[in-house]
Amino acid sequence: MFAIVLGTRPEIIKMSPIIRSCQKRGVDFFVLHTGQHYSYEMDRVFFEELNLPAPDYNLDVGSGTHAEQTGRIMAGVEKVLRQNQPEVVLVQGDTNTVLAGTLAASKCHGGTDSPHPIDVGHVEAGLRSFDRTMPEEVNRIVADHLSRFLFAPTLKARDHLIHEGICEEQIFVTGNTIVDSIRQNLSLAKKQVNVLKILDLEPERYLLVTLHRQENVDNQERFKEILRGLSQIHDMTGLPLVFPVHPRSDKMIRSFGIDMKGFQIVKPLGFLEFLQIESQARLVLTDSGGVQEETCILNTPCVTIRDSTERPETVDVGANIVAGFSADSVIRAAEIMLKKDRSWSNPFGDGNAGDRIVDIVSPA
Questions:
Q1: Tally of domains within the chain
Q2: Which alpha helices (H) appear in the chain, and where do they start and end?
Q3: Which residues pair with 3 in a beta bridge?
Q4: From residue 232, how far is each of 241, 247, 335 by CA, in Å?
Q5: pLDDT of residue 43
Q6: Whole-number mean pLDDT of the chain?
Q7: Position 344 in a domain
Q8: If DSSP codes are grouped into helix, strand and coil, which group holds residue 223?
Q9: Residue 33's domain spans which residues?
Q10: How confident is the model at residue 42 (pLDDT cuts 50, 70, 90)?
Q11: Within this chain, do residues 128 and 8 fall inside the same structural domain, yes or no?
Q12: Which residues does the annotation mark as catalytic?
C-alpha cells in the first residue's frame, strides 16, 4: 500500500494521473488531503470535475505562518501514517504539504516489524530556482534529500540532483505528470461549458493574468509596479486583461486600495475552465510555476513575473521569458512574446509519467 499526500489544487491536478493509474491497475492506495490552501469542501469540485475519488482523510489545517501550518500538517500526517503504515508516501512539488509529509514519513516506520522509515517518493523532484528566499525552494530541497524515490520530470532536473550528491540509482526521469493531466483533460474541457462565451472573449483576443506569490502580492510597492506594467500592456495592445483573482491577491488589492482599471476580474476558475481559457489566450502573464509548464505544453506564449524560475526548460525552448517585476521589463517581455511563433516542442515528456511512477513504487 502507498499513500498520496496532497494539499493544494495544483497538487490535485498533478497527482490525478497517478490516482487514475492506481485505479486502472488495482493498486492499493489512499489519499490524504491536508487542506493547506482550502478545506476539502472547497476543493471538492476539483475532485468531482476530474472524476477522482474523494480523499480518504482530510486534515483541514488551513492557513497560518509557515511553521504553524507545517507543524499542523506534520502532526496530522503522522497520525494517519501510523494508523495505516503504508510502504511508500508520494508527495508532489514544493508546498508546505510536501515538506511536512516528507518529514512525517521519514520519522515513521514502514510497518510494525520494519526498523526503517517509510519511503518517500517525490514527484517533480530536482526543480531549482537557486533562490533560497523562496519558501518553495527550501521545501523542494529538503524533500529531495529525504526521499527514497526521486521522480525528475526532465534531464535537467536529474542533473541538479546528481550535482547535489544524490545517488543516481534513486533518480527516475519520468516526464511531468502535468502533460498527462492536460492530455487527459483538454478534450473534456472543450466539452464543458464554454468559458470564452460566458466571459465574452474571442480566441487569442485577450491576455490572461495570474498572480498569487507572496513576494509579489504582499509587497504593496511591488504589486502596484506589476499592475502598472500590465495596465500599460493593455493600453498598448487594446486586449482585455482577464484576471481570475486568487483569494490572496484579492485580499491585498482591497487592502492596498488598488485601482484595477483595464482588468477584467473574474472568480477563480476550475481546472477545466482554466485549461480552456489558458489554451486560447494570446499571452499569459503569471508568477505561477505550474502555469509556466501548462502554457509551454499548450503552445501559449508566457511571461513570468518573477526574478527566477525553476522551470528553465520553458525558457530554453522559447515558450517563456522571465521578466522580473518592473513595469518596463514586463512590457518588454510581453512585446517579444506577442510576436512569438508558437512552434516550440514540449520538453516535459510524453504524457505517461503517472504510469511510470506507479510502475516504480508498486511493481507488478
A1: 2
A2: 9-25, 40-49, 66-84, 96-106, 135-146, 155-163, 177-191, 195-198, 214-217, 220-237, 247-256, 271-279, 289-298, 312-316, 327-338, 353-361
A3: 30, 89
A4: 11, 24, 11
A5: 81
A6: 93
A7: no
A8: helix
A9: 2-176+350-361
A10: low
A11: yes
A12: 212
Quick one: 56 and 103 in the same domain?
yes
Which residues, at least 6 apart from 284, have a Cβ–Cβ distance to it below 8 Å? 207, 208, 209, 210, 278, 291, 295, 300, 301, 302, 303
Of the candidates 2, 214, 5, the one whose C-alpha atom is nearest the C-alpha of residue 100 is 5
Q: 39 and 172 share a domain?
A: yes
188 by DSSP, 3-state: which?
helix
For residue 345, the model assigns a pLDDT of 95
- Residue 181 in this model has a pLDDT that exceeds 80: yes
Contact (CB, 8 A) for 117 and 110? yes
Indicate if the alpha-carbon torsion angle 78, 80, 83, 87 is positive or negative.
negative
Residue type, 128: R
Judge whether 345 lies within some domain.
no
How is residue 72 written as a grid cell? 499542523
Return the minimum-mean-pLDDT range out of 44-58, 152-166, 304-318, 326-340.
44-58
For residue 261, what pLDDT band results from cuts at 50, 70 and 90?
A: confident
pLDDT band with cut points at 50, 70 and 90 for residue 19: very high
Please report whether residue 330 resides in a domain: yes
Name the residue type at position 310: E
Mean pLDDT of 8-35: 95
In 3-state terms, what secondary structure has residue 347? coil
As a residue count, the chain comes to 364
Q: Which pLDDT belongs to residue 111?
A: 56
Residue 45 pairs in a beta bridge with: none
Q: Can you give the CATH number for the domain in which 61 is found? A: 3.40.50.2000
What residues contact residue 259 under an 8 Å CB cut-off, 6+ apart?
none
pLDDT at 116: 76
Specify burial of residue 267 (Cβ count, 10 A radius: 0-12, 13-18, 19+). exposed
Among candidate residues 52, 25, 36, 8, the one with its CA nearest the CA of residue 185? 52
